[in-house]
Amino acid sequence: MKVLLVTCVLAILAGVAMADVVAEADPLKSGIEAIEQESGGTIGVTAIHLARDQRFGHRADEVFPAASVIKTHLLIVLYRRAERGELSLDETMTLREEDKVGGSGRLQREAAGTSYSLAELARLMIVISDNVATNMLVGRLDGMESINKELVELGIERSRFNRLMMDAEARARGIENAITPDETAALFAALERRAVAKPETCDAILAVLLAQELSSKIPSLLPEGTRVAHKTGTLTAVSHDAGIIYAPSGPIAVAVLTKGIANEETSRQAIARVARLVYDAWGAADEDVIKGATE
Fold it and tell me: Which in 129, 217, 261, 269 has the greatest CB count within 10 A?
């Protein structure tokens, strides 16, 4: 089972690595390049249409600071280990004063001594990007080295968990978590294909991602009611969103990563515009495409 899962993810990654070459004539290319130029920074994009096996990439293999998008990787590792019986999502952890860090989330304001199940911590980590919950789960999963080892088993070669959330000292030393557009989109594609774990486990992971409360990036310019299972991330001059857009034509895995854009609103709008470009290019159902071509 494990070999089959890894083989599937590696196959997705291998396909995405070709995206920049395949997409040279893609109408998405000029639109995304224009958005990038207007932003004044760097934008990396990988999009994968799962049903049509379409791929697009722009700076697809470039490394970006991960921000909170890497919490998705942690979520998948957690649920895989629960599936294997190495832990239970119902087991609890007790919040300690020393666990508290700043940034996003609410646990930093909760009373020390309060207990939370692993499932509760996972949900907080994703839906409101809680940094305290994230760091607690890293500890429960035996640290970053153990998590990175499992990412390698999944075929993730360049994305790495290198520091805890809000570790200013590590950041000052140049230590940063890292992701790439292609590996991020491929991981979401593998999740949607139920390839990273058993189907019921993947369903549970996607349910958490669908409950995302931070919706100002990828979902913001999509048609009302469009479902998106996704995870955002923000640092100084870094802003991301990545996930699955459930378009009429089928699910589209997309990662839009940005760096070097000083104004957060500019980066947010850029991500939203890229997501809408992908949706407009690929989102129509096949019968709608045929109908439009004949009218």
Answer: 217
